């Protein structure tokens, strides 16, 4: 299958390119290196060094015996998107080119507007290019479980059945996003859903939980094939950040009480699930939603898990609570469904500790690199638009 990954230079994109190539797919990529620039703007860098794209592409060719077609450019330029679709003729498009950060969208008006316009424009351009040049292709768009918010009822996979005055219908589950970023994802989901209805496109919207992990699988013995791993407040997911804090001798910082509940998924599981979505497309005209996570955990659970595994390496990280910069409920109901991926064949990682061990082992050689950006480990972006460094409780 010809698969184009938009955002191939990112955390998920580079790992997915290798996963799909290992399964015999013809993979192409596009990127403009925004993720590298955004993390640098946050005063940080990837904990694990990331090779330049020229070196990544050479290592990819050596590992898989064929080159990856790659285009450098901005998906906000419709001509750029259209040219790729015409030239590569993808059978599947994986859209990972949106800005994936709620804190980044909360910095100020410029960042909020950028996140909204970038995320909506890139998705629109992909939809219109598919309609014009690849109407039979399958769009896999990365959404987020954060689109749902934390409603006081169970969360289905995208839709729910309702009955009113004897009439039944299947309606999109109401979204209760908690940031400007998450609302951009909601608006994008609505646009994809409407394009499927209007033009008969096939699309899968991945409502993904929080991803963690350093490597997708055993492929990455070559450092040029390593994917990035961020630890800053805007792009470092909580488990990755905890592991980086542990190896750098920094306290593990819990926002607020730590009782917040979220869906989480290891990086290898994310790659498995995205591959299942690519290889099992929906019917033309179908807008499919997959809730993608391994299990639901409280944030405090992760602090204790990471501290316990870090202790095996002789590390003794403290767990410290800091003021919560986010506007979110800390005690809430949270019970989302995630049955569809299991029906497609998802086999979840049952024991999380080995994933944490492999991550800490991979990070330990880079402990000094993390310490050099120590200031990035504490948040100073608040949802209310003020900038102030969080304090320990």
TrEMBL record:
Gene3D superfamilies: NAD(P)-binding Rossmann-like Domain, UDP-galactose 4-epimerase, domain 1. It comes from the Bacteria. Belongs to the NAD(P)-dependent epimerase/dehydratase family. Signal peptide: none annotated. Transmembrane segments: none annotated. Residues 4-289 form the NAD-dependent epimerase/dehydratase domain. This is NAD-dependent dehydratase.
